[in-house]
Amino acid sequence: RALFGSLERFTGILLEHYAGKLPAWLSPVQAVVMTNTDKQHRYAEQLLKALRRKGLRCETDLRNEKIGYKIREQTLARIPFLLIIGDAEENAARVTVRDRTGKCMGTLLLNEAADCIEMCCRPPEVRLD
Questions:
Q1: Alpha-carbon gap, residue 78 to 70, rounded angstroms
Q2: What is the pTM of this model?
């Protein structure tokens, strides 16, 4: 029982220290793929598969809500990366990437976006010297 209490306290300390904004490598959900309309659902699923092949923990937000609402909700959930898909992105095989601070990282090709997010989500190296 003491072991679980220690883990719970440690998790609480981590959440308090980072104010809920865990580093991307430690975050339970590292990226969320959001669609602008129902037309992009198939493209969003393709992107989700590409991200998962890179070993990322990601989800889709395919709800029939306004994109601003989805962005705000996922930002409040402290998701490190938001990937936004609209008609223009689907036609160009690209995705718009934003970080949790709201900074737009640009509209990237699918592979570029997956590589960039995967690089940002790598855990730090631990040296045992």
A1: 12
A2: 0.85
